[in-house]
Amino acid sequence: MSRWTKFLIAVILGTAAGLFYGWVVNPVEYVDIAPESLRVDYKSDYVLMVAESYQVDHDLGLAVRRLALLGSSAPADIVANALSYALQHEYASQDLSLLQSLGEALLTWNPNQEIPTP
Amino acid sequence: MKQDHRGSWYLLTGALLGVSFGLFYSWVISPVKYVDAPPYALRADYKDDYRALVASAYLYSGDLLRAQDRLAQLKDDETGQTLAMQAQRALAEGRPEVEVRALRILAMTLGGGVTPDTSGVTPTQATTIIPPTSAFTPTPLLIEPASSLTITLQISPTPLSTLNIPESTTIIQPVRTATPSPTQGAPFVLQETQLVCNINQAEPLIQLEVKDAAGQPVASVEAVVTWDGGEDHFFTGLKPELSLGYADFVMTPKVVYSVHLADGGQSVDDLTAAECVTDDNSRYWGSWFLTFVQP
To answer: Which is it for the CA torsion B168, B169, B175, B176, positive or negative?
Structure first.
């Protein structure tokens, strides 16, 4: 076996070791993530919490700001996705009703009427 | 015949180059992506938002088990304590009153086992028994956002017996029975005012202990201390090593203070730093210990 072949084998083995260390042993840790990166069931529960809170404060602007933490999609889309997930996973009917109420309220939401929060 | 005396260093060089490339690729070019992260990995300020949201949702539902389940996802060491401290921070930062109140109520409920006072809210769910087969009337939801995505969802009632729910959303149908609580919402009254002499306590304090009707300490109770030209607020529950119902405030000598709990009730006036005397006639500051109880 030539030197170059051995050298290339060493490089490949080293790369494999580096990848294993970087991906498995000591991967990059995201300890300060945003809600956008939450798992879909947590996201759906987050949206459900927003819907429950909306029933208390009836503040659609606040609900939209909270939903905005889940990504750049339109708030109505975020609720629709959560509702879709809730339907697939057979959430309780009152939870579905809450999500639906929020989704319907968002249809009437006009961002131009929103008063910026200091 | 020519002989190579370079040894095997080239193998080590190759391995190091490979490791370097592997680490660069796995840490920089294509690091592990956490797209399915749990709530405990949230940044601290997002965790605050999450707690506030849990508390606000709890105001609506009154479902303590669900609130506990949600908070457990954050893996806080002391859930009630964390909520109490966040309530205090929220108050200091001028956060909306409803948020502060929600945090206080949930902290108090978790800390002291107190039935939450959700008066002032219009809970339709907290007082309604949801039948197992809901009478929910399905209506189509047509969401037409700005994007081209149009979703039409038809909701159909689902029997609870077939629930198959994700891990994070444990749907628990609470038993919504009325809780006997004759003293719920009653303001705390002053039971005792006592000068405490503790030579190890260097500064004069106003110390509070707040207990519910069962004699249990109550966390997250806001106290207001006023003096000529000033006012401050402090909360019970921030020194759980002493008591969940304990709070204190450092007095300035010669200043006259009044203390009352924020939810009303009796005010304690004319509190000033008082001195204690040891056997050898040396003097040190004493502290006023006020005990408030719910009748």
So the answer is: positive
